Amino acid sequence: MMVPVRCFTCGKVLGQYWGPFQERKARGEDAGEILDSLGVSRYCCRRILLTHVDLTDDVGPYG
To answer: Taking the domain 1-53, which CATH number applies?
Structure first.
């Protein structure tokens, strides 16, 4: 499914960070350094971006 737009715990908007995070992670950068540079400092927000699994392409044909 799609990345949550807001953090479940604190409510901070996270949707804007998903694209840059994925691009930089695909280039081989360290995830912690990416999140630091994007300004995601709360551990609840970091958890959502680090553990999200994008299933949009897998679920799409069944919709």
So the answer is: 1.10.10.60
CA dihedral sign, ordered 7, 56, 31, 15: negative
Q: How far apart are CA 52 and CA 48, in angstroms?
A: 6
pLDDT at 16: 94
The domain locations on the chain are 1-53
7's CB contacts (< 8 A; 6+ apart) are: 14, 42, 44, 45, 48
Q: Which residues contact 8 (CB under 8 A, 6 or more apart)?
A: 44, 48
pLDDT per residue as tens digits for the range 4-39: 899 999 999 999 999 999 999 999 999 999 999 999
- Rounded-to-integer distance, Cα 44 and Cα 47, Å: 5
